[in-house]
Recover the amino acids of this structure.
């Protein structure tokens, strides 16, 4: 089964009808029949953003359940060290912790298709062996 990595931006846009990217992201994610994979860091970051809405946290939890979202842990000491090294390497882009965990997850799962609104970051970041990411939402937002 095909898989996409899921970044914070599309997750929040999907849940927030007022987000400028909502309609396009909802269309792409709603039509996706493969697996969605993300990290606990992305979920934490998304939960922070959707908490501004009273129903945001429960919408995120419902989405995760209904979509069968696969959430991978990323806070073991060795993972933190690898993420910190990536963040230092891409400090000029910049790269945040959630992005670093997605790069590490891409390497772990051998999945390089990513649903992200962060074109600058994910066209710059490279996984192991300099493998580029494919932005599956390209054209889905302004």
């Amino acid at each position: 089964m095909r898989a996409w990595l899921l970044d914070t931006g599309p997750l929040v846009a999907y849940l927030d009808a007022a987000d400028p990217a909502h309609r396009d992201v909802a269309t792409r994610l709603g039509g996706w029949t493969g697996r969605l994979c993300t990290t606990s860091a992305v979920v934490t970051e998304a939960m922070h953003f959707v908490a501004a809405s009273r129903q945001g946290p429960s919408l995120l939890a419902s989405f995760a359940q209904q979509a069968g979202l696969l959430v991978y842990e990323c806070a073991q000491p060795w993972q933190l060290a690898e993420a910190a090294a990536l963040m230092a390497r891409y400090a000029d882009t910049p790269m945040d912790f959630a992005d670093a965990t997605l790069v590490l997850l891409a390497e772990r799962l051998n999945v390089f298709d990513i649903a992200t609104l962060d074109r600058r970051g994910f066209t710059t970041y490279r996984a192991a062996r300099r493998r580029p990411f494919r932005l599956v939402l390209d054209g889905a937002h302004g």
Observations:
- The first strand starts at residue 3 and ends at 6.
- The mean pLDDT is 94.
- The chain has seven helices and five strands.
- The CA atoms of residues 50 and 56 lie 5 Å apart.
